[in-house]
Amino acid sequence: MKIIMLGAPGAGKGTQAKKIAAKYHVPHISTGDIFRANIKEGTELGKKAQEYMDQGLLVPDELVCDLVVDRIHKDDCENGFILDGFPRTIPQADALDGALAQNGEKIEYAIDVEVPDENIIKRMAGRRSCKDCGAIFHLVYNPPKKENCCDVCGGPLVLRDDDKEETVKKRLDVYHEQTAPLIDHYKKAGSLYEVDGTQDINVVFEEIESILEA
Ligand code: ADP
Ligand code: AMP
């Protein structure tokens, strides 16, 4: 099961990817999480990535592609993987498709979670992520049981630095310019599946289950 999640920032890719990973036992690989972990650890990669992330820009392809290609060749990806936040540009999609093609493989499901821009700003302002384990909550749509406390590990919940309204607007522009063309790319490849991401989290997941189990 080789899956990628497409959709604007805040569409619910991470939320759904975690549910898919738990149900179908494939690793959830989020490039955003990988960069945030590197920032936290103060690595060279983290320092470089942060310059771009803080401005709502994409990290350059050359810092992302090899990292992901190496990751999907690890043993735990033998039965597939779910990529969340990658690819985000046509060159990234080409690098991914090329690496898979070397073994006669391809992306089977490109799941596009569709949410209009006007809903995104509201979603991002309410997003809270666990500082320790990365679990995702929303103050209104998916609140934690205890205020500011992660249901999964008890860690503190924080607003991401790049979820400020001005940065979100920039990220949306970047999405439309650089990432949205991937919808057509995977449509042509015959692996595009679209879901309405404005529905309740569990309803979106049911739609994804029916795609993956058809
Ligand atoms: P992405 O990974 O695409 O950036 P997230 O999964 O982090 O998006 O979701 C962004 C925010 O929206 C989070 O606060 C999440 O709890 C919330 N969210 C996700 N899916 C839905 C949904 N279907 N309806 C309402 N809120 C949602
Ligand atoms: P995310 O957690 O997916 O919302 O990603 C947060 C930020 O990390 C993005 O706004 C980008 O700056 C950076 N990033 C994550 N994935 C990629 C990628 N595939 N290509 C370039 N930048 C990325």
What topology emerges from the helices and strands here?
Blueprint (H helix, E strand, L loop, with lengths): L1 E5 L6 H12 L3 E3 H11 L2 H10 L7 H12 L8 E4 L5 H12 L7 E6 L2 H10 E4 L5 E3 L18 E2 L6 H15 L1 H8 L3 E5 L4 H12 L2
Parallel strand pairs: 1-3, 1-4, 2-3, 4-8
Antiparallel strand pairs: 5-6, 5-7
Helix pairs in contact: 1-9, 2-3, 4-5, 6-7
The structure holds adenosine-5'-diphosphate and adenosine monophosphate.
Task: Please explain how this structure is put together.
With 214 residues, this protein is an alpha/beta fold. The chain has nine helices and eight strands. The strands form two sheets. The protein has a five-stranded parallel β-sheet with strand order 2-3-1-4-8, with helices on both faces.
Shape: globular
Regions with pLDDT < 50 over 5+ consecutive residues?
A: none
How far is the N terminus from the C terminus?
Answer: 13 Å
Query: What's the arrangement of strands in the largest beta sheet?
Result: 2-3-1-4-8
